[in-house]
Amino acid sequence: MTRTVAQHSFARFLFRGGSIMNFLSAVESCLTQFAVFSGRATRSEFWWFALFRWLLLMGFLILGAALDEVFETIGWGLSFLLLLPDLAVGARRLHDIDRSGWWLLLQVIPLGFLVLLYWWVQPSKEPGEE
């Protein structure tokens, strides 16, 4: 008997709760809600935006190393400009698993990022779900 993707337990774990966003819609959502710290962000929205930020920075750093240092400066500048949308989507992601956005302050202490990373990979919770 063959199993479809929807029947596979790992797929059910990945797609439980929330909707699935594609790369472009996640980036658009994060950039249009760049200063919105209320609401919820699904795992896919959060991780697609994280990939976008990483690819953008790495692309400009590689161009800076290969061609001209100005590209590296542009990459770091864009990274700085994306800091507010990054914090906003991080707070909304924490709201999606019933945590306060203030938990983002864990990033300033050593190993606090690991706690946030654990929470960010958790499936979405319905409001009021234990």
Automatic annotation (TrEMBL):
It comes from the Bacteria. The chain crosses the membrane at residues 20-39, 46-67, 102-121. Keywords: Membrane, Transmembrane, Transmembrane helix. The keyword Cell membrane does not apply. Pfam families: DUF805 (PF05656). InterPro entries: DUF805. The keyword tRNA processing does not apply. PANTHER family: INNER MEMBRANE PROTEIN YHAH-RELATED, INNER MEMBRANE PROTEIN-RELATED-RELATED. This is DUF805 domain-containing protein.
